Amino acid sequence: MAKTIEFHDEGLFHSGHAACPGCVEALAIRVIANRIGRNAVAVVPPSCSAVIVGPHPNSALDIPVYHTSLESSAASASGIRRALNASDRRDTEVIVLAGDGGTYDIGFQALSSAVERNEDILYFCFDNEGYMNTGGQKSSSTPWLAATGSTPRGKPSKKKNLVEILAAHGIPYVATATPGHLDDLGRKIDKAMTIDGMRMIIILIPCLDGWGLADDVGVTMARLAVECGIFPLYEVEQGRTYTLNRQSKTLPVGEYLKKQKRYRHLNEAQIGLIQAEVDEDWMRLLEKTGSRR
Questions:
Q1: Per mean pLDDT, which range of 5-9, 72-76, 126-130, 229-233 is the poorest?
Q2: Nearest alpha-carbon partner for 142 in 180, 92, 105
Q3: Is 57 exposed, middle or buried (0-12, 13-18, 19+ CB in 10 A)?
């Protein structure tokens, strides 16, 4: 049975931030800040996170925040990490709070290099599957057939599997999480903080506006993504050891897709194709984790 996490609010993430009403990214940031504590520095590129956290001196985070360029989060964090080490502050955690555009796409070169060097950074990617604060354009994290501002008839290519790419780098720790499973998220943050080197947690963030959702269903959609298997919860250590955190998927993908406006153009045949793709990916993940079918 999974361990239940006890959460305490230490006042590290202030009210009055600029998140959209109902945005679950704000919930995820609150959990991250309170699990990591005050002895930390955050690197934030242009993203929803930058809007939510806000600029100096009015930051919603009660830790130092460095706003960097969209492509250089991992490089900036690497420099801060090395400066802290030179000042004998190796116990200060350096974290990145970035979106999928600045992680999967524009910032991937710096990220890949930081993983190759095994920089001692804890990187959080808030994956809302598109460039949501610039018009909702597609990113390489956008799923197949999802409509966006730049792919109104549906994205013609699959979502980039960033976990597998990082696993191929031999990253010490990479995991997926959602704000609908806070015990799981809290446990993974705690675990990541005990590991030396490059660590990454990719957090699915249902975007209320970009996905076409009501402002009170963010947590529900995050849970549905896991329950239908479209966003499995798992961990990979040293690029080799896979652990599946939820052993089964219990819902058809249609239960998830039909609640989102970005999929309203799909017919039943297309939903069936997505289901077949999810089933195939799920079986591949079961093989890697050694889980029962």
A1: 5-9
A2: 105
A3: exposed
CATH fold label, 24-289: Rossmann fold (3.40.50)
Residue 177: both structure tokens together = 């999480």
> Omega before 206 cis (within 30°)?
no
Question: Can you give the pTM of this predicted structure?
Answer: 0.96
For 96, the 3-state DSSP assignment is strand
H-helix or E-strand spanning residue 272: helix 268-289
pLDDT, one tens digit per residue, over 41-69 is 999 999 999 999 998 788 999 999 999 99
Placement of tokens 């947690």 in the chain: 201
- Sequence ranges of the domains in the chain: 24-289
Q: Report pLDDT for 292.
A: 61
Q: Are strands 241-244 and 234-237 parallel, antiparallel or unpaired?
A: antiparallel
How many CB atoms are located within 10 Å of the residue 146 CB? 22
User: Residue 124's beta-bridge partner residues?
Assistant: 97, 201
Point out which residues pair with 203 in neighbouring strands: 126, 177
Q: SS3 string of 35-89?
A: HHCCCEEEEECCCHHHHHHCCCCCCCECCCEEECCCCCHHHHHHHHHHHHHHCCC
Q: 179 by DSSP, 3-state: which?
A: coil
Given a cut of 70, whether residue 1 has pLDDT beyond it is no
Residue 109 is encoded by which pair of tokens?
């070169």
